[in-house]
From TrEMBL:
The chain crosses the membrane at residues 6-25, 32-48, 60-79, 86-105. It is found in: Cell membrane; Endomembrane system. It is a multi-pass membrane protein. Its main location: membrane. Belongs to the UPF0060 family. One of its GO terms (cellular component) is plasma membrane. Pfam families: UPF0060. This is YnfA family protein. Keywords: Cell membrane, Membrane, Transmembrane, Transmembrane helix.
Length: 109
């Protein structure tokens, strides 16, 4: 389970971090190097989920979506300095429950 969570966190940080660098380049007029590095990181984001042991692409990406939401709330808090409110935390908690059900619910096949 540790490797599963670690890979989801790494994928999330790559997607958010890469996207943030591209955002800085295009929206805040940072040098093109930001965009290039962001693009490279986004390519890595595309590779990281393939390292998961789950056989279903859809299930991995559905679960990752919940992890991404939690990481985006944390990114907004730590990087953008936008303090999450109660509803952000409730939504993030619901997402983690959904991720847990998607990945670890007992299945017959």
């Amino acid at each position: 389970m540790f490797v599963t969570v670690l890979l989801f966190v790494l994928a999330g940080l790559a997607e958010i971090g890469g996207g943030y660098l591209v955002w800085l380049w295009l929206r805040e007029s940072k040098p093109i190097g930001y965009g290039i590095i962001g693009g490279i990181i986004l390519v890595l984001y595309g590779v990281i989920p393939t390292l998961q042991s789950f056989p279903s692409f859809g299930r991995v990406y559905a679960a990752y979506g919940g992890v991404f939401i939690v990481l985006a709330v944390l990114w907004g808090w730590l990087v953008d300095k936008k303090t999450p409110d109660l509803y952000d935390w409730i939504g993030a908690f619901i997402c983690i429950i959904g991720v847990s059900v998607i990945l670890w619910a007992p299945r017959s096949s």
